[in-house]
Amino acid sequence: MNVFRKKSGLLFMIALLSLCVFSVSCTADSSLDKRLSTAAKPYKFSLINWEYHAIKTIINRGNDSGNDIDKVNDYFSIVGEIRSLEAEIAAVKAGNRQGDLASLEAEIARRQQQTGSLQIAVETTLEKQIQEVLAEQGIFNPFYKYIKLKFHFPTPSFLLDEPPHLLVVSPRDRIESMREILLQQELSAEEMEAIEAEIDSSVVSSLVVELGGFATLPSFVTNKGGLRFTLNAVGEEWVHKYLAFRPLGFKYLLDLTGISRNYDIATMNETVASMVAKEVGEIVYQRYYDQDNSQPETSPSEFDFNHEMRETRRAVDEYLARGEIEAAEEFMEQKRHYLAEHGYHLRKLNQAYFAFHGAYADSPTSISPIGAELKQLRSQSDSIKDFLETAASISNRIDLAEKVK
């Protein structure tokens, strides 16, 4: 996500992230690791190649002023049009409507050319706006508490691109991420299914998910999201980099690399990053882009996806606690079809799905008490800076419980 100005810091982070990508071979379950290696090897994402491309791209940007709100609005308007065209193509292919696929695809290509011409202005503008808000909040670097120097490290540099996929593996008898491997950007649904089929067994379930962002140097952030999503994603990947130099983030790196697995630490880290990013992103959005403060009216009878996912997660946990694995999986499949009937199409809903999405304790797919505790910690904090500083010092579950007493 960031181009570190110091070479040592850059190499340090690349080494840690590279270890994360290739950590599967260091774990204990050799049978699972062998299947993972076989299934994932043809599709492995090359972090080194990405870093070379990303750093070269950032260097070639030049000194863009990074202050063009109109271009940001134009870019995300076109992105929305592309999403609509893609949905139309999917409907035609599914036989739900008639249309000229060649014409639709040509129109998408034309719109993508337009976004390409705006991309640098969008990236530099959002980076500048986010950094300004961080500075206003008194957030500069992870060492500021000790050295009081107002230099920005890391900076919120990012590239709008198609992020890699992530292969997530969870035990079948409980919801917990036990393996994660980065995979290439271009994967078909058939390839995802084949990878999962090779890994799934009587003891584990797997899922290939499309990432919205990834904390490389600079960050990947998906080029398919809306403005609010992009602001949150850029902020979230920045927080991950910030935390990596504090106890909470360092413990998370140990979890990611498989050196010291701790799902609570992973949940705390992801949730803190999400909470801080949403606050910072909302400040940027309200200041520069919110032209209409009115909230859309919603009908009380409108389908509540968040509620459905929370209730589904609770029910699945209850099934698994009773040892009823097959019943839990049958229930999730029934729910997947039910969600599709209401317009929410999930390719697969299983233990790995909840292990990935449930790591965000402030999300509807999580029922972890960590979310409530972190929200309480935020309410006790005078500012975003105070919350981030306090959370960054947490090194275990007990630390968090003590801080919210």
Main sheet makeup: 3 strands, mixed
Helix content: 55-70%
Computed Rg: 21 Å
Tell me the strand order in the biggest sheet.
1-6-5
pLDDT under 50 segments (min length 5)? 1-28, 293-300
Outline, from the CA principal axes?
globular
Main structural class: mainly alpha
Q: Which range does the strand content fall in? A: 5-15%
Intertermini distance:
35 Å
Averaged pLDDT: 86
Number of strands: 6
SSE ordering: HHHHHHEEEHEEEHHHHHHHHH
Instruction: Determine the number of helices (DSSP H or I, runs of at least 4 residues).
Output: 16
What does this molecule look like?
- The chain is mostly helical.
- The protein has a domain at 7-121 and 154-245.
- It has helices at 7-21, 30-40, 47-60, 69-93, 101-136, 144-147, 189-199, 227-243, 247-256, 263-288, 305-321, 325-341, 351-357, 369-380, 384-392, 397-403; strands at 158-161, 165-171, 179-183, 204-210, 213-214, 219-222.
- A three-stranded mixed sheet has the order 1-6-5. A three-stranded antiparallel sheet has the order 3-2-4.
- A hairpin with a 7-residue loop joins strand 2 and strand 3.
- Helix 8 packs across helix 10 and helix 9 (247-256) crosses helix 10.
- The longest helix has 36 residues, at 101-136.
- It is globular, with a radius of gyration of 21 Å.
- The two termini are 35 Å apart.
- The model is unreliable at 1-28 and 293-300 (pLDDT under 50).
